[in-house]
TrEMBL record:
It is found in: Cell membrane. GO terms for cellular component: plasma membrane. This is ABC transporter permease. It comes from Niallia taxi. GO terms for biological process: transmembrane transport. It comes from the Bacteria.
Length: 321
């Protein structure tokens, strides 16, 4: 397993280099640049804009710009945000904690709901409860995240006034205090529900179908023949085998939840890297945009690796040498 992990990590290097070429090319294909919106004779001198483009290297050939960017990137220099005028690393680190907190909260909600609904549907398939859960799942699959976000804000924030509709923490609270952390939890709950509940549908169906399939296998018949209690059969024997497909998703969730937070954070005005990415696209903030895209690519590759490793942890029969 150690040799396999090292080989996979080394294999990520050429993949990231190829990704950097694609990411840089797509970013440069967008019309305009970070200075395009500032070309206004009433606000900014066109000569100043021309000088800034020369200073930032926007007039250099594309391949020169790429090699300069990728060389600095490998050194840990992600550049300076053209919008916020601060280091990209500092800007992303300020927002990353919010997105991680949102992603972990949404992941907990997803797995709690998925295991609860999946076990209920899998143990009693084709019953009223199973059909009711299936109906809820179909609704979850059909509703886009931006529609669910607007509906939850309207009901729970505006009508019921249970949760705030924007931000990540209340104003004026002392960082590190109990009130501060409770406020963060209060602000993150609504967007986390949207992210987590919508992801539950597919997880529930996968778990349900696997439980039904595994309940018909020989090892379950043997356990029943030995007089093993039905709860132990489902909670230990069947569930352990049915968890394997969900482990695959767990690795991808590291990147998917952070990437999926782009829309949710924008709707809830939640200050995370998802909202930052939308802003960087709109303002052509290349240093921020390129760094975030590379971060998402790295997390996707890392998720693949974690999923493969967890395979062997969940099922001892699966071992990679």
């Amino acid at each position: 397993m150690l040799k396999y992990t090292l080989r996979r990590i080394l294999g990520m290097i050429p993949m990231l280099l190829l990704t950097s070429v694609v990411v840089f090319s797509l970013a440069k294909l967008m019309p305009g640049d970070s200075l395009s919106g500032e070309i206004d004779p009433n606000n900014t001198d066109p000569q100043y804009i021309a000088e800034m483009r020369e200073k930032l290297g926007y007039n250099d050939p594309e391949y020169v710009q790429y090699f300069r960017w990728v060389t600095d990137f490998m050194k840990g220099d992600f550049g300076t945000s053209t919008r916020y005028k601060i280091d990209v690393a500092d800007l992303i680190s300020e927002r990353l904690s919010n997105t991680i907190f949102l992603g972990i909260t949404a992941l907990i909600i997803t797995y709690i709901l998925a295991f609860t609904f999946g076990m209920i549907s899998g143990r009693k398939p084709y019953t009223i409860r199973d059909n009711l859960i299936a109906g809820i799942n179909y609704i979850g699959l059909a509703i886009p995240s931006f529609v669910a976000g607007v509906i939850t804000i309207y009901i729970f924030a505006f009508k019921l006034n249970w949760f705030p509709s924007n931000g990540s923490v209340g104003i004026g609270l002392i960082k590190g205090s109990f009130e501060y952390y409770m406020s963060r939890l209060h602000h993150v709950f609504l967007p986390a529900i949207v992210l987590g509940a919508l992801a539950t549908a597919s997880y529930t169906q996968f778990l349900r179908n696997d439980i039904i399939e595994n309940s018909r296998k020989d090892f379950v018949r043997t356990a029943r023949a030995k007089g093993t209690h039905e709860n132990k059969i489902y909670n230990v024997h069947i569930l352990r085998n049915s968890m394997i497909p969900l482990v695959t998703f767990l690795g991808f969730d590291i990147a998917a939840l952070i990437g999926g937070a782009v829309i949710t954070e924008t709707i809830f005005t939640y200050p995370g890297i998802g909202q930052l990415m939308i802003q960087s696209v709109g303002t052509r903030d290349y240093p921020v945009l390129l760094t975030l895209l590379m971060l998402f690519s790295f997390l996707t590759l890392l998720g693949n690796l974690i999923a493969d490793i967890l395979y062997g942890v969940v099922d001892p029969r699966i071992r990679v040498s």
